[in-house]
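Section handout 9: paired folding examples.
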Amino acid sequence: MIITDFAEIVEIKRNREGKTLKYLADLIGGKSIVYTKQVIAGIQNGENARKYRQIIAEDLGISLAELEEMKNSNGEGK
């Protein structure tokens, strides 16, 4: 089974590394936990939200480029 949903991958990696939503919120500039959840879930999708997703991905060791490639190869990105 391949997980291609960013929010699921973040949840798994976050739990494995013992990082809290508060930690991720502080990582992206002290934003609120609610906003951070929305960024991760893709509800917030502006330019800043995309930058914040990249910061979160880098911190958790997630490659967004590989994730997009997997989605496209599975036909999910179309």
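Moving on to protein 2 of 2.
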Amino acid sequence: MIFTYGPLVWDTEKHNRPSPGSIPVGYNDKGIPIDDEGIECLPVQCIIHPGYRPTMWVHSKFLEADIPNPVEARGWFNDNFYHFTDEQIKNYVIRWIMLQKFTDLKNKLMDKILVDKEWREKFWDE
């Protein structure tokens, strides 16, 4: 599935669909999709947005740190009728960690990736 950025609108067939308004044409300095007027096309409540702030955390034994809970990340997608596999949601959580600047969590992940080729399987072990 291709993720479509932009607000959702309710159509006459009673389905949410992407707005027919301006489509993303580029990215701002934070890596967020923007339209031709420079308006961000992605809400901060979505894990894909670098400014997203998780409220639910789980402990990763592998990182010896708390990480964003994929259940919370899935909530936004479900609320907006996007369907992703658990693996895809977990990849978005990892991507969010990697987009954070100078955090202990990102540094721990980078350290583990460099020394452990099997890191992806171990990342979600509890």
